[in-house]
User: What shape does this take?
Amino acid sequence: MNAQPIAGTCEACGFALLVERKKGGKTVHQCADKPCSAIQDESAAESESED
Ligand SMILES: [Zn+2]
Assistant: This one.
């Protein structure tokens, strides 16, 4: 499992940690809260302010 924790907030449940996963050659961000595990919308993740 190639999950790497990244800063962010789940758009589904508000959990304050996401994980980055490689999926079929592309990177997706997923909620780190196991019961949720929501895949984050790419554009939303991109626009996330992360100075
Ligand atoms: Zn979540």
In short: The first helix runs from residue 42 to 47.
